[in-house]
UniProtKB/TrEMBL annotation:
Pfam families: 2EXR (PF20150). Residues 54-167 form the 2EXR domain. This is 2EXR domain-containing protein. InterPro entries: 2EXR (IPR045518).
Amino acid sequence: METPKLAQLYRRNNATIRNVATMEHKTIVDDDTLVKLYNDVHFRKSHPVIYDSFALFPLLPRELRLHIWLLFLQRHRMIELGIHAADATDEQQSCYYTDRNRLGNTVSGRNYTLSIKGRGYAASLSPLLRVSKEARYIALDFYRIQLPFPRNNGEQLLFVNPDYDCLYVRSDSQPSSTPPVAFPPEPRAAAVLVDFLHDVRAFDPKDQGVAHLALFAHYLHWTLQESHTSTRPPFVPDDLNPTAATSFADILRSSRLRSVFCILKFMSCMRGWNPFPSRGWRSHFAQTFPLQRRGSPAGAFDWLETDPRPGVQLDLSQVSLTRDPRSLARSWENLEKAFGVIRPEPGSETSANSNKDFSFYICPTLFWPPDDQQLPGEEAQGPPEGSREELAGHLRQEVDHWDRKRQYIMSFDPPGIVIPWHGTIIDAETFETMRRAPSTAIGIWLFPANAFKEPTKVPINCFDLSAVRPGLLLFDV
């Protein structure tokens, strides 16, 4: 058997092939445990499962086994981390940026704590670290960054390969609701993010550090958004320890930090959304709006340069977001300027000679289920978070919500005006083609910041993005 086939086999060893069921007209399968996703179609083609197991694997030559282990590891991951500013005494603060780690690099001294939801060993986030000595050997070599990860039950390590891993940083203490327009920036929270980025770099033998950073839009606003009462940037080098300021400026100027993903919510947690009243809004069920990945704190994904699903441009004609993404991009730009980084405008003469290794993305994804469904005491009674059962339940609620909203809008329209199931932007045949593709996906869209021009509806941050073909982070679920 050829090596590539063995690699494909063992890449998904012990996985089961999910049967693709015929979906009902309302996008819900008869068996609630099975939901038809574009993710299934994509990953069956790129990572096919030949057998459920391969008992002869231990008999393969060691070099071949190591190669297969490595192929298993060489996948993009998004790792969700909670970060929280720790209370520190004056004595502890005096020790910041004075200690060195085993690599001889200065560390921040931890002005923060980290958390990963899940069980005690979740910080490793790779099964190969626990499979065998051989698998652990190749995994430890692959995950060259081993960041100390203090927990209540003792210190563990966070294993990271910056070339493949995207660290999704969210504050454990940020406001749960959307801050008001004039919500002030939080310099301490921003300093904590700088400390974290410095420490990841300090524990990297190659002096790389975080290459792909994802920030929740509320966290980005909370830490970096400029105040409307001052022209001063959200925080400046003088707000930081001198070593931290120098380190952060170097991270921004160099090609170490290659991409920042600003994760942003759609205005609604339902793909079929009808704001009312809203003159000029066309009733539409946006099948290709990507849904947030839920469940495990780490998820493997494929990075698609363009979203290949049919009908994407149709759904992009009305994109309403919880925030104006232009202000978020402007905040990051002002932050860079405060640390001496000035990037030319795309398409300008100087941009041809500038550093093209960095990208700032606006990344909409649909957060589900609605907040009002996550009631205290009910979580344990429902299906596991991120499971197909939970997703099927949400899709069923989407359908009910879409039906109710259409009926409600039609009750105010002139008699005889009907909003069909497929909405008013696309015809029934196109809608059905998209459904059968399928178009539902667990993932995140990637838009360059300059894709967002003037909004078509300012109050609901609505943009026409139909001229843009976004990228897609598609999760293996």
